[in-house]
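Researcher: Here's the sequence for the chain we discussed earlier.
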Amino acid sequence: LISGPPSQFTLVDWPEEPISIVSGKHLTQPLIVQLCDQWGNPSSEPNVRVSLTKDSHLKIIPAAQQQKTDEKGRVSFGKFQITASRGEHKLQLKAIFNKNTLEGPAIKMNVIPDPEKPVALLVEYDKSACFPAGGFLTEFAVSVLAEDGSTMKNVSAARLTMKIWKGKT
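Model: Thanks. This is the structure I predict for it:
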């Protein structure tokens, strides 16, 4: 008993969708696709060209290229890096078998902000204070804000500098 001709895809060991990923990071596991017949049985059809298409504002490194299935009817796109703006994005699998196009499942990805990527400084001080020449400056409280809007806790004060320059009179 053998499986029928390929008519659909399944994702092998893929988590529940949508998956959450931080922009600029790699997938936690490889994207592996299995060809299946119309009843969902794995099809071991080799050399079927499978391509991965993406939203135009989604960047994949290395670039997704068309690949052929192996002797088990599988193809691995690996653990690629995703770069995109926040929000939900889609990847689409397509294959060509006997001049027929097979549409695979749309893979939904939720791109979340990076809590470890600094994007802004928040500086708080007494804005009404006057500073006489030779006197002391007021106390400055500086916080580093991450891409997700939270205050970063693991920033060393030694890595922050403050410069004073002459203003225009």
